[in-house]
UniProtKB/TrEMBL annotation:
The protein's name in its UniProt record: Protein PHLOEM PROTEIN 2-LIKE A1-like
Pfam family name, one: PP2
A GO MF term: carbohydrate binding
Coiled coil residues, start to end: none
Length: 187
């Protein structure tokens, strides 16, 4: 299964799994930039155990099984991640997206989710996205934001998807977060 926006085999170098399949890396041939997929086990998910979330495996492009996190029911959605800027290629504008799916029976998404990008400079960028009208049953990308990487940067970029309103939400599946050059190769 190819990730939307992930380059076909002819446009990327070999994909390598890191940290016991918690991350994957590849090189985008168009930009030469390092790309990363952070799977749910490398993210901080509030209330990440049963009865709030389940962890299921699916087959990726290879024969490797990858875990996804499926929301059963929470009223406090909070998924966070962080990444060292020094692992990215300098001088490239990167985009960060959450790769998610809403099940056919997903509910409780009347209010928008907030996507937050916290940069090493201290700048915080928030944007709200409504999931109510998003396609059900298909993987979609939620763009958290873009950032230019600087040579010699050693700090981290942090990213969140959250919705803290007091009503219950169900049916969100998180495949992970993708960091890739904004003008990446396409299949």
């Amino acid at each position: 299964m190819k990730f939307k926006g992930e380059a076909a085999t002819t446009n990327v170098t070999s994909e390598v799994f890191l940290e016991h399949k918690r991350k994957k890396t590849w090189i985008d041939k168009k930009s030469g930039g390092h790309c990363f997929m952070l799977y749910p086990r490398s993210l901080y998910i509030t209330w990440n155990s049963h009865p709030y979330w389940t962890w299921n495996c699916f087959k990726e492009t290879s024969d490797d099984n990858i875990e996804v996190a499926k929301l059963l029911a929470v009223c406090w959605l909070d998924v966070r991640g962080k990444f060292k800027i020094s692992d990215l290629s300098p001088g490239i504008v990167y985009e960060l997206v959450y790769d998610v799916k809403l099940t056919k029976g997903a509910s409780g998404w009347e209010l928008p989710v907030t996507l937050r990008l916290s940069l090493p400079s201290g700048e915080v960028r928030d944007r709200q996205v409504s999931l109510l009208e998003k396609t059900r049953g298909k993987w979609i990308e939620l763009n958290v934001g873009n950032s230019l990487t600087q040579s010699g940067e050693t700090r981290e970029v942090c990213f969140d998807i959250y919705q803290h309103e007091g009503h219950w939400k169900t049916g969100l599946i998180i495949r992970g977060a993708i960091l890739r050059p904004k003008d990446h190769s396409t299949p």
